[in-house]
């Protein structure tokens, strides 16, 4: 369910769904930062900071690079190396390709997907070995989750999926919802005495004009009938007024 939440990193309100706890900007930054995690060197067993495909610590990596250079020079001496510009065959599709690097195994068409799959497989292996750490991290994030009360605007930690921080706010939200429905239906001539909390997220005062967070467009509906989506709020409200007067 989409609702206003408080970002646990920057403290700004945002419209989120599911288990989202950070705004889009902080979520992107956090995703980029989690690429570098604590890894265990496969050679010496020491810990180091590295990406999903980092198997060795800096010291062991330097030693392996020296060893690889010695082996490469020995192969070159005996003519057993591939030359840049020569032809090789892709290990995925078997098609020939022009060699552009000594470690190249894939043709340009297969390389992006194959490399991405290798990184994903390494990430899955790491996650399988660190289930307890991942579970604890999710628990900590859940404890830090906060919503914005739909009535008073106060940030609170939800116990279930409620959108209010107290019983008083719940009653006021019900009163506003009930009064709004009667006002729109023409049962009463007076609008609600107070509106719901305005979070600062994009919204329109016109009924049926809504901002779609994922599409980043404005949707127009009249009497439940879909009219269209527009890039700006002004275009959507203009279309709404034109249809009301036509």
Q: Structural class of the secondary structure composition?
A: alpha+beta
The coarse overall form would be: elongated
Give the terminus-to-terminus CA distance: 35 Å
Adjacency order of strands in the biggest sheet: 2-1-7-8
Average pLDDT across residues?
81
The total strand number stands at 11
| Biggest beta sheet summary | 4 strands, antiparallel
Task: List segments where confidence is low: pLDDT < 50 over at least 5 consecutive residues.
Answer: none
Elements, N to C (H/E): EEHEEHEEHHEEHEEEH
Give the amount of beta strand, in percent. Answer: 15-25%
Specify the helix fraction band.
Answer: 25-40%
Question: For the CA atoms, what is the radius of gyration?
Answer: 29 Å
Determine the number of helices (DSSP H or I, runs of at least 4 residues): 6
Explain how this protein is built.
It is a single chain. The protein is of the alpha+beta class and 246 residues long. Among the domains are: 38-138, no CATH class; 209-245, no CATH class. Helix content is 38%, strand content 17%. A four-stranded antiparallel beta sheet has the order 2-1-7-8, with no helix packed on it. Strands 9-10-11 form a three-stranded antiparallel beta sheet, with helices on one face. The longest helix has 20 residues, at 58-77. It starts with a strand and ends with a helix. The model has no long low-confidence stretch (mean pLDDT 81).
List the SSEs and their pairings.
Layout: E1 3-6, E2 13-16, H1 24-33, E3 37-40, E4 47-50, H2 58-77, E5 87-89, E6 96-98, H3 111-129, H4 131-143, E7 146-148, E8 155-156, H5 167-185, E9 209-212, E10 217-222, E11 225-230, H6 233-245
Antiparallel strand pairs: 1-2, 1-7, 3-4, 5-6, 7-8, 9-10, 10-11
């Amino acid at each position: 369910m989409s609702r206003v939440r408080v970002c646990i990193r920057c403290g700004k309100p945002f419209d989120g769904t599911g288990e989202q706890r950070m705004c889009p900007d902080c979520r992107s930054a956090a995703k980029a930062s989690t690429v570098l995690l604590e890894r265990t060197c496969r050679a010496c067993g020491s810990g180091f900071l590295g990406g999903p495909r980092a198997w060795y610590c800096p010291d062991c990596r330097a030693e392996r690079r020296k060893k690889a250079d010695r082996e490469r020079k020995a192969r070159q001496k005996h003519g057993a190396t591939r030359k840049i510009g020569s032809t090789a065959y892709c290990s995925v599709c078997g098609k020939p390709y022009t060699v552009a690097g000594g470690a190249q195994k894939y043709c340009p068409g297969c390389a992006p997907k194959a490399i991405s799959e290798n990184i994903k497989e390494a990430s899955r292996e790491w996650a399988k070995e660190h289930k307890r750490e991942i579970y604890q991290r999710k628990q900590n994030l859940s404890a830090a989750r906060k919503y914005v009360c739909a009535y008073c605007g106060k940030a609170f930690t939800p116990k279930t999926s409620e959108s209010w921080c107290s019983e008083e706010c719940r009653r006021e939200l019900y009163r506003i919802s009930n009064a709004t429905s009667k006002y729109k239906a023409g049962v009463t001539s007076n609008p609600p005495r107070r509106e719901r909390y305005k979070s600062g997220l994009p919204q329109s005062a016109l009924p049926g004009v809504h901002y779609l967070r994922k599409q980043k467009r404005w949707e127009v509906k009249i009497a439940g009938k879909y009219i269209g989506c527009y890039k700006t709020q002004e275009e959507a409200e203009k279309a709404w007024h034109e249809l009301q007067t036509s």
